[in-house]
Amino acid sequence: MKNIYNPSVKNIDKAVDILKKGGNIVMPTETVYGLAGIANNNKAVAQIYNIKNRPEFNPLIAHCCDIEMVEKIAVINDMARKVLNHFNRGSITIVLPSKDNTNLSKLGCAGLDTVAIRIPNNKICNEIIRKCGFPLFAPSANYSGGISPTKAEHVYKSLGNKVDMILDGGASPVGIESTIIDLSNDKPAILRAGAITQDELEKFIGIALVERTFAKGNNPIAPGQLKSHYKPKKKLFINIEKPNSKQAFLGYGDCEDCFINLSKNGNLVEVASNLFDALYKADESEFNEIAIAPIPNYGIGIAINDKIKRASV
Ligand code: TXA
Ligand code: MG
User: Fold this and answer.
1) Cα–Cα distance for residue pair 249/242, rounded to 1 Å
2) Checking CA distances to 113, which of 4, 151, 199, 258 falls within 20 to 30 Å?
3) How far apart (Å, rounded) are the C-alpha atoms in residues 77 and 112?
4) What is the pLDDT of residues 193-207, one digit of tens each?
5) Under 8 Å between Cβ of 49 and 57
């Protein structure tokens, strides 16, 4: 039987019960579906790495239901507070110093003295976190390196019955992962491009963000920044104007023969929300390869191009 459940009160309570006992569930968020475990339980966190087959213990994002919950585990400096208030539930993840003497799992933070926090914009997910009473660590609910899931069906295709429960919250409206910024020290940095653009952030905080993807010793600190990521099973080609007959073509704007048009009206937000679903569908199609039309590289297009480039390596 498929382990996909509707998000009724009964099922939400069941999910909370599983989480409180140190188990794992998959929950919808506005960006992509997340594989959750309670962030104060090392066993629950270890299972996340195991289920995803994540090769290294890369740090995870602690999902909180509100700023009060963030305060339980992280030191919120003035800039972080401003950003959290302004981009309120706006698909942004902030790396902050973690507080001492909390029960936050060291494994989930990969032993760092910082923690990445995010307040999602999804009622089901926030209700689950609130009822758990502690943040939930949750990476995207797919096999490591694969396409991120934006529908419950995608999760099932990737992880199958490896989790007890996948809560179905419909299609994730944003469709790509949150923007990650590091505000843990006096050199604000952008670690991962996402729905909120670097431009928008810089305008708001009034400081140029450094682009930083690698920590000391060349250990990647943001796996979304690994060269190869988000990969479909079929070979993916990007910036293609004229696909050949072997290719499932993901078009943009005017497009006669495309397998899926990512956005007929050339709306980049729509491209983001359709992208991963289109990759799943193209992967299952009768075509041998996948080709994507050129996507303009501004606004959210920067994050989209960053992802499809990594998916094509
Ligand atoms: O939209 C999202 O952010 C989704 C949904 C499920 O919330 N989550 C997600 O998680 O994309 P994940 O595990 O795929 O990516 C977490 C990223 C990684 O790139 C990780 O390296 C970075 O956050 N990260 C976590 N803690 C960090 C820290 N203390 N310092 C630097 N980077 C950190
Ligand atoms: Mg991921």
Assistant:
1) 9
2) 199
3) 18
4) 998 999 999 999 998
5) yes
Q: Is the CB of 34 under 6 A from ligand 1?
A: yes
- Ligand 1 lined by 41 (C-beta under 6 Å): no
Residues lying with their CB under 5 A of ligand 2, a single-atom ion: 140
pLDDT of amino acid 211: 79
Q: Tell me if 182 sits within 8 A of 116, measured CB to CB.
A: no
pTM above 0.70, yes or no: yes
Determine the pLDDT at residue 221. 53
pLDDT for 83 beyond 70 = yes
**Nearest atom within ligand 1 for CA of residue 98:** 29
State the amino acid at position 194 in one-letter form: G
C-beta 31 within 6 A of ligand 1: yes
Which one, of 153, 230, 150, lies nearest residue 193 by Cα?
A: 230
Domains delineated in the chain:
4-211 (3.90.870.10), 236-311 (3.40.50.11030)
Which ligand is in closest contact with the Cα of 225? 1
